[in-house]
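Reviewer 2 asked us to include a model.

Predict the structure of this chain.
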Amino acid sequence: MIETYRGVIYPWNCDHMGHMNVQYYVGKFDEATWQLFAFLGMIQHL
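Predicted model (structure tokens):
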């Protein structure tokens, strides 16, 4: 398995029910996707 993201979810990333807000979830997913692409050699590290 490849670990593509490790980070922190802050309280302001969550809604009033304590669930992560969609805009922040998508942002974390985007960051993980770029790491996966770099691991696979699809992009170059800058």
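Residues 16 and 22 are 13 Å apart (CA to CA). The chain has one domain: 1-46. We have added this to the supplementary material.
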